[in-house]
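cron nightly-structures :: item 1 of 1
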Amino acid sequence: MDYLLGIDLGTSATKSVLFDKNGVVLASSTATYTFDQPKNGWAEQDPDVWWRAVCQTTNDVVSESGIDAAHLKGIGISGQMHGVVMLDENGDVIRKSILWNDGRTAEECAEITDIIGAERLIQITANPALVGFSAGKILWVRRHEPENFARCRHILLPKDYIRYKLTGVFATEVSDASGMNLLDIRARTWSDEILSKLGIEKEWLGDVYESVDITGEVTAAAAAGTGLHPGTPVVGGAGDNAAAAIGVGVYQSGRAMTTIGTSGVVYAHSDTLAIEPQGRIHTFCSAVPGAWAVMSCTLSAGLSLQWFRNTCCEQEIAEAKESGTDPYDLMNRLAASSPVGANRLLFLPYLMGERSPLLDEHARGVFMGLSAMHTKGDLIRAVMEGVSYSQRQCFDILSGMGLDVNDMTICGGGARSPLWLQMLSDLYGCTVKTTSLAKEGPALGVAILAGVGTGVYESIEEAWECLSKTTAETTPDEADRNAYEPYYALYKSLYPVLQESFLHLACIQ
């Protein structure tokens, strides 16, 4: 039997999953951690925490499955995008990684736009300079930590740091590299023009591969720490959303997914290059060789509900612990007791600033319409609806770009909530589906890529023919769909009114 390993390096956990060629899970292990917020709007993690999590989870799955690690055909790595890992000449980490949801680089993004030109930057990279993207973080370190920048000899994305630890190779692949503001999206390689103008050394960034390409093999040193077999091939893998797309079957035009995880993403496959001229939605290279993807990113989707849980649901957490249930299940019941519109209460999910579709690092969360009659259930529902309105905004922009979505899969933690599935179906106005494979998400996606790269499958399409999968569908409720529309219209009107206030708040000392 051929076995494949998918490693998913997330913001809050690393998950390693061992599959057979039919997509059956043989073993799975997750190691959790947190990220640091040294200042408001900042987010950092220690890359060595990721490596320890990888070592723990890979040892776990090899031990739990009982397989001989020598029978593992290939490894794929997925990871949170945009984070910057800087290494010195010895390959040692210089400073903590600045993460995708960090909003400190507004000044550097303005500098990039001024140097390259807003229109030219989008022509080359398909995206404007965004505070979440990697280029601004590199320039921020150069400006604010010159001693660290002077030591820098390698710059890696989070998952590519794991690749380096596994193989000793400095490399990346096109889907993740697309989110750096440094990749020529058409040529699928680093942009010499941008690197030269920004003063970033090309050799610091490593080679660029397609997602199915073999990039290196597990070293003896890495094998000793991970329980893997020396010489096991490691393919390019993919950024988390591109990997999740492969894992739920979004590899053809017309197919899309919505992910409600820490962030919220609407992701659609495209066989041709499509660019949103205002940069409200991103265009990246797909994990499918020679294809692209159009995607949005709401920074605080599941994070908004997690924040509410941690801040306001101590009772539900205690009850869930006592009864052996999930506090989110109790929160969903409370939310379901509130009607569409949460009794005229709206929530703007901008807890970490916002990327899609607003491009405003100063935006912050808002409850609008709060009164003494509102219950905890109303507040929970308002948070879930606010996140759903944000996804609808992004879906509308995607549709306006001519991407005709006829197959929408929902994944991430939000997909476990029937209430959230119904909200999304009602707001999109289409049937949404979940798949039994979605819970493995990015780990399955990169395992498929590893299978294609090592010859287990001839293609991604052929891989999907082999996978064991079941699906469930949720259809729109027309009465609720109509009831949402005035709330959605009001939701869209709030940010333009508050935009200047958000900026003023950010400037108060």
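cron nightly-structures :: done
The mean pLDDT is 95.
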